[in-house]
């Protein structure tokens, strides 16, 4: 039932039979992947109006697809502008990503994401890591993010190449058996006795669409463990290991502890950033440097590490020389 036309937005009603490796995903997410370039709001509208049907019946966005389900997909019109895939102008970034692949097999692709690239298009961006990887791997039937990283955070990003791998890794994330470690350069002298920050986080969306997170009793329970990696004269390099996975968690928890991260445009310290400005870095110093998980197919324990980029390494070298001179 799957043919090359399936990803083309056309003027005809389509009926697609769900295959075994596609089951257990929500129908809204399935349609988002199927109807590339269609806004989420439009997808919810066609589901709500009953234009999307499963086995001839109406459905809800949270319905989980089963193998053998027949999905009716109505014709969807998208403006030329939003339907164009703006990869060509970003070819240098696409090829740069090819150099950043840390590990790849038939189940997984693991990339060392550069700072400044969103993990996927959206929020006014039509280009992200996942779109770039799909451009690099046109033959890949399935490429989906296992988790996310903020646009300005660099480091390890897991991408599943099979639905079964995605399900397995999501289960590991839910069971908290995946360990992720980050490096962050923070303001001042981090106290060694501060080994964990437990502070509930509440997410707010501003009218501009920008997301701001704050510590609030109304928020969700959140915990990050910390240890000192290296001390400098006015900054500390810490290892941060999130136990929960809230939006902007490490950035807000370091700020809450009184040690905001270098060059954090939302939660940072302008004075601290000015102290660092002469060293040439102009990006958030937060890097996902290590991940430990169980391989979804082999069951082997995997430990993957991602090196810091050149600008972060240079800044640390300069801070070292400054610290040891004093």
Features:
Structural Genomics Hypothetical 15.5 Kd Protein In mrcA-pckA Intergenic Region, Chain A; elongated; 3 domains; disordered N terminus; ten-stranded mixed β-sheet; four-stranded antiparallel β-sheet; 326 residues; RNA binding; 9 helices; Pseudouridine synthase; alpha+beta
Describe this entry's structure for a reader.
The protein is an alpha+beta fold and 326 residues long. The protein has 3 domains: 7-77, Structural Genomics Hypothetical 15.5 Kd Protein In mrcA-pckA Intergenic Region, Chain A (Roll); 87-160, Pseudouridine synthase (2-Layer Sandwich); 175-324, Pseudouridine synthase. 25% of the residues lie in helices and 26% in strands. The strands form 3 sheets. Strands 5, 6, 7, 8, 9, 10, 13, 14, 15 and 16 form a 10-stranded mixed sheet that branches. Strands 1-4-2-3 form a 4-stranded antiparallel sheet, with no helix packed on it. Helix 4 crosses helix 5. The longest helix is centred in the C-terminal third of the chain and has 16 residues, at 310-325. The radius of gyration is 22 Å and the shape is elongated. GO terms for molecular function: 23S rRNA pseudouridine(955/2504/2580) synthase activity; RNA binding. Responsible for synthesis of pseudouridine from uracil at positions 955, 2504 and 2580 in 23S ribosomal RNA.
How does the SSE layout of this entry go?
Elements: E1 14-17, H1 27-34, H2 40-48, E2 53-54, E3 57-58, E4 70-73, H3 80-83, H4 91-99, E5 101-104, E6 108-113, H5 129-136, E7 144-145, E8 154-160, H6 163-174, E9 179-187, E10 196-198, E11 201-205, E12 211-215, E13 223-231, E14 235-242, H7 249-256, H8 270-276, E15 286-294, E16 301-305, H9 310-325
Parallel strand pairs: 8-15
Antiparallel strand pairs: 1-4, 2-3, 2-4, 5-6, 6-8, 7-8, 9-14, 9-15, 10-13, 11-12, 13-14, 15-16
Helix pairs in contact: 4-5
């Amino acid at each position: 039932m799957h043919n090359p036309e399936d990803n083309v937005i056309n003027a005809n009603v389509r009926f697609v039979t769900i295959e075994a490796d596609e089951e257990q995903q929500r129908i809204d997410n399935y349609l988002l992947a199927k109807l590339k370039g269609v806004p989420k709001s439009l997808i919810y509208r066609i589901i709500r109006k009953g234009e999307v049907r499963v086995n001839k019946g109406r459905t809800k966005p949270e319905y989980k697809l089963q193998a053998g389900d027949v999905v009716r997909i109505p014709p969807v019109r998208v403006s030329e502008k939003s339907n164009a895939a703006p990869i060509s102008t970003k070819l240098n970034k696409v090829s740069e990503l090819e150099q950043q692949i840390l590990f790849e097999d038939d189940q997984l692709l693991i990339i060392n994401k550069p700072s400044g690239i969103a993990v996927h298009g959206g929020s006014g961006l039509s280009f992200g890591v996942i779109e770039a990887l799909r451009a690099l791997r046109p033959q890949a039937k399935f490429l989906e993010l296992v988790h996310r990283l903020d646009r300005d955070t660099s480091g390890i990003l897991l991408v599943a190449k099979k639905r079964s791998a995605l399900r397995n890794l999501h289960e590991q994330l839910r069971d908290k058996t995946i360990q992720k470690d980050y490096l962050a350069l923070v303001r001042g002298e981090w106290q060694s006795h501060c080994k964990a920050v437990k502070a509930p986080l509440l997410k707010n969306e501003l009218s501009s669409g920008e997301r701001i997170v704050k510590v609030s009793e109304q928020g969700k329970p959140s915990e990050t463990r910390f240890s000192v990696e290296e001390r400098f004269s006015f900054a500390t390099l810490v290892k941060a290991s999130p136990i929960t996975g809230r939006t902007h968690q490490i950035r807000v928890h370091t700020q809450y502890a009184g040690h905001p991260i270098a060059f954090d445009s939302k939660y940072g310290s302008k004075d601290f950033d000015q102290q660092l400005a002469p060293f040439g870095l102009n990006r958030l110093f937060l890097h996902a440097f290590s991940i430990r998980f169980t391989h979804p197919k082999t069951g082997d324990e995997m430990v993957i590490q991602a090196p810091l980029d050149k600008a972060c390494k240079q800044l640390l070298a300069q801070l070292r020389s400054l610290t040891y001179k004093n």
